[in-house]
Amino acid sequence: MIRQTKPSDPPPPASGSEVEVITPGRLHFGMLAFGQPYGRSFGGLGAMVSGCGIRVRMKRAETFAAVSHVGERAIGVARQCANAWGLDEHSACLIEVLDIPRQHIGLGTGTQLALAVAAGMQRLYVDGSGASKHDMSAEDAAALAQAAGRGLRSSVGVYGFGAGGIVLESGKLQGEVTAPLVSQIPMPESWRAVLFVRREAEGLHGDAERTAFAGLKLVPFELTAELTRLAVMEILPAVLSARFIDFASALTAYGKLAGKPFERASSRLPYAGATAQLFEWLDLQGVKGFAQSSWGPAVVAVCESNVDADSLVSAAEAAGIADQHEIRVVAFDNHGAIIRAMDETVTPT
């Protein structure tokens, strides 16, 4: 699921300090609201997971350059941040994207890449601190997202980048830049997620995603109310008290309900049938908690322990599900991105 990008040619020389940013991956279990003219839009619930995020390394340079298949996007974010912070034309950087998941599969890769680059630029040219940093405040994470141009709809990945955990955000009123954070709490350390990602499949993104949103009907207040109740009165309290069965059951209910406004658009996706079959298989296996992440194709099944997660993977392999899906056990991330200064002699791998 994660591939490492290695440059075919040595990077151009750069001088100055060097910084590395390692992000978690983001799971999004569904939005709270959409389309109501006087209420909040978007909002939603999600969680951060370890081992399937972004790793970038950045150096000061006289001009912008990047070593990656997503180099142009990374440079665009760096330029946008430089403009937002009023940096001069020589405040540039060399960007190496060392690890990045396959894009458009429901792991929030675009937001995590943008925030990683923004955090690197901030460390190189704005705050100058050499100490490793994580557990960023919600306010600082929102400011970083604004500079990077992220959080236009969901802000789950923004706050998750800052401090990890399970995140509930309220959605935005008209004119708000970033949705307010409602709750952000750590997940129990022993709980695990099993990710199933349909091979070669991509979720909606870009113009196709914008077209899908434009065609959505408004989400009824009653549906928003029930999603909010599930999140605030069942899912989050279950996490706080480490009641796994309650958490898992409520998560499944939340995911199914959050998917209803998107049923028409989702049914047209080429992997829709495979996702439905996977949900049915998980249910037959007695898995209590599962949901699609964002537009998919990533599906997450939650497990109470690593042993339970490994058993689920073994069952999936025996059933032939691994033939069509990448399957991976991941821990939940409770810290957010790591931002650290590097020694100039460190050689990228």
Per-chain topology:
Elements: E1 2-4, E2 18-22, E3 25-30, E4 44-49, E5 55-61, E6 65-67, H1 71-84, E7 92-101, H2 109-127, H3 138-148, H4 156-163, E8 166-169, E9 181-185, E10 192-198, H5 206-214, H6 221-240, H7 244-259, H8 263-267, H9 272-284, E11 289-292, E12 299-303, H10 306-318, E13 325-331, E14 338-342
Parallel strand pairs: 6-7
Antiparallel strand pairs: 1-7, 2-5, 2-14, 3-4, 4-8, 5-7, 8-9, 10-12, 10-13, 11-12
Written overview of the protein:
The chain is of the alpha+beta class and about 350 residues long. The protein has one domain: Ribosomal Protein S5, domain 2. The protein has 10 helices and 14 strands. The strands form 3 sheets. Strands 1, 2, 5, 6, 7 and 14 form a 6-stranded mixed β-sheet that branches. It has a 4-stranded antiparallel β-sheet with strand order 3-4-8-9, with helices on both faces. Helix 1 packs across helix 2. The N terminus and C terminus are likely disordered.
Nutshell version of this structure?
This protein has 349 residues and is of the alpha+beta class. It has ten helices and 14 strands.
Using brief descriptors, characterize the structure shown.
37% helix; Ribosomal Protein S5, domain 2; 6-stranded mixed beta sheet; disordered C terminus; 22% strand; 349 residues; 4-stranded antiparallel beta sheet; disordered N terminus; alpha+beta; globular
